[in-house]
Design a protein that fits this description.
252 residues, Rossmann fold, single chain, 9 strands
Length: 252
């Protein structure tokens, strides 16, 4: 199979596991967690590296910002043999008691975006793969990271005029975090046969400006940077657990 047009990768990567940061810069920082690292491609927002983690071959691919670019990445990854993918991204908290650097393990997403709605009607749920989400939870707990589990709202407008009102409304409904990609990941992944999970790093506490908080994160805020390292490690450990589980099942 030739290279996919956007991610510029083909099935010769020989792995079924991927970690999907939004930011291309996060791909570079993730290289510190891998061995035998090979840089593959950097086309548009899609930067990729291949490496090993505890003997597991794994791809890191950035997806850019928003559902459309995430959906394109998932579509093309499915065509080259990826069967499990964990998003590692940033989010704004929608509940009190969530601090910068805390992780959010998303067990469902509000589909307030356009990309996921282009694939399926609103009644179709945006949910992660149960086994992969469980592996994320077990990995974060084992590592001693601070984490929360709950629903995230995925949307398309970071600077919308009605954002404050919308955040309040979804907070009252029990939603705990806000991002722009998880709903598309869950829906497209489910339709294309890829296990998916989403781990978000809190960069904006509840009632703090998301845009300014993301700016501080980009400038190297210590708590958010620690959360990024924790979500990278949690994703890698979770994929390793899934790989080991599948090997055991094949031997039975």
């Amino acid at each position: 199979m030739g290279k996919q047009p956007h991610i510029q990768l083909s099935d010769d990567i020989l792995t079924a596991c991927a970690v999907l940061p939004g930011d291309p810069g996060r791909v570079a920082r993730a290289m510190d967690f891998l061995e035998d690292v090979q840089e593959l491609a950097f086309h548009r927002e899609y930067r990729s590296v291949l490496g090993t983690f505890e003997g597991m071959r794994v791809l890191f691919l950035s997806t850019g910002m928003g559902g459309p670019s995430t959906a394109i990445a998932v579509e093309e990854l499915a065509k080259i043999g990826i069967r499990a993918a964990v998003r590692i991204g940033s989010c704004g908290a929608l509940q009190p008691g969530m601090n910068p650097g805390d992780l959010v393990l998303v067990n469902g997403a509000v589909r307030d975006d356009g990309a996921s709605c282009a694939y399926a009607p609103a009644q179709y749920p945006a949910i992660p793969d149960f086994d992969l989400l469980s592996a994320c939870k077990d990995s974060a707990r084992e590592a001693g990271f601070s984490w929360h589990m709950g629903i995230a709202r995925s949307h398309d407008c970071l600077y919308g005029d009605d954002n404050l009102r919308l955040y309040e409304e979804w907070s009252r409904r029990g939603v705990i975090a806000s991002d722009m990609e998880t709903a598309a990941l869950f829906v497209v992944g489910r339709l294309r046969g890829i296990r998916t999970a989403s781990i978000l790093n809190v960069v904006a506490p509840w009632h703090k400006d998301v845009g300014q908080s993301v700016g501080r994160y980009a400038d190297g805020d210590a708590a958010a940077a620690a959360g990024e390292a924790n979500e990278i490690l949690t994703a890698l450990m979770a994929l390793k657990r899934i790989e080991q589980k599948e090997r055991r099942e094949k031997r039975q």
